[in-house]
Amino acid sequence: MEKPSSLQIHNFLHQAEQRLRRQGLQHRSPDPAKFCQPQGKVKSDSSAGVAHTLRVPLARARDTDQTKDTTGPDWFYLPRTDLTPEFKRDWQLLSMRGLLDPKHQKKVLRSKPPLYCRIGESTSRLNLKSRQRCTRSERNRPQFYQILGEQDVGQVKTKYSKIQRRKSSGKKKSSGG
Question: Does the keyword Disulfide bond apply (predicted)?
Fold first, then answer.
């Protein structure tokens, strides 16, 4: 099959354009006046009766809901807390941190999470044994697993068993039968 020449392509396009005009199909471009406002006359062409103006895009109004769901400019637009399951688990861990590390006294947190907060992400921690950067899986673990990994597991188990013994000390033991 033979390639059409540039003259043939030009003729095809010209014929298609004429057909569209005859059928009344017009492809309109969006009205620029909706997006821009004239800023003044730059040059007027009296022979064509057309005034050339400089059009500057309108500044879009800032979304009002941005300030609605944030703390505002005084607190750097801190976003509303997104209560994901990971956040809830991390908040529980923070509220129970006195149980995990009984040797350090921690201030008691509120029972409810704050309305506005931002969750940070640890980008790199030093691995004390090998002094290398942590792997991606270690970096992306939730805070819950990071703290449990750092704690002495034996200490947590003994604390848990003490609590269980204290809770079950006054109860009758059921005979499994």
Answer: no
